[in-house]
Inverse folding.
């Protein structure tokens, strides 16, 4: 039975998007069925026009990815949230999606699913770890079983964080490095493996 994985992310310039795509690649290598979803922008065109490329990137990504929904979260056996860092925490756009899951939270429908996070930032030490850790709090409230990376793969000694995949784009908006992507690929595999084990255990309990 396939493991269902939702990757719900927000990306403005493409760095977080690239990590999301690579996490999906790793998950699919483990047999997961993946839904990639981009949270929508919350500001109008007049604000987006102040940052070169924002509107164009948003239009491209919105055409490529559906917006995440409650139904996506309920469908998933695992949810991985991705966001650029905003002053050391998650973006408003991703947080708005997380906040929309209150109905599922109330019904307990997310309890026992695997959860994880990843991020990107424009500066070194710009909040990579704190941003992922900030995602742990709503994950705990939703009842997700948080899956960190630890140092379970050699790639973690070269990039990423023990909490989740990350990248630093710099002022030139550089894409994630090969090492960043290797960590992201591992994250997709690891979360899928844990989610599959949790799903199998639940099926066994149900049968018994």
């Amino acid at each position: 039975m396939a493991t269902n994985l939702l990757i719900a992310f927000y990306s403005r310039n493409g760095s977080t998007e690239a990590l999301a795509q690579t996490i999906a690649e790793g998950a699919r290598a483990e047999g997961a069925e993946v839904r990639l979803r981009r949270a929508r922008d919350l500001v109008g065109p007049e604000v987006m026009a102040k940052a070169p490329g924002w509107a164009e990137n948003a239009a491209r990504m919105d055409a490529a990815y559906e917006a995440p929904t409650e139904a996506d979260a309920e469908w998933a056996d695992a949810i991985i949230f991705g966001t650029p860092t905003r002053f050391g925490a998650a973006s408003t756009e991703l947080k708005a999606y997380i906040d929309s899951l209150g109905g599922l939270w109330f019904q307990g429908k997310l309890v026992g699913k695997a959860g994880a996070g990843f991020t990107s930032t424009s500066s070194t030490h710009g909040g990579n770890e704190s941003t992922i850790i900030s995602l742990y709090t709503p994950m705990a409230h939703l009842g997700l079983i948080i899956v960190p990376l630890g140092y379970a793969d050699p790639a973690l000694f070269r990039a990423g964080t023990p909490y989740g995949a990350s990248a630093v784009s710099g002022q030139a908006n550089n894409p994630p490095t090969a090492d960043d992507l290797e960590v992201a690929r591992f994250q997709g595999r690891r979360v899928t493996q844990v989610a599959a084990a949790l799903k199998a255990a639940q099926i066994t309990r149900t049968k018994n």
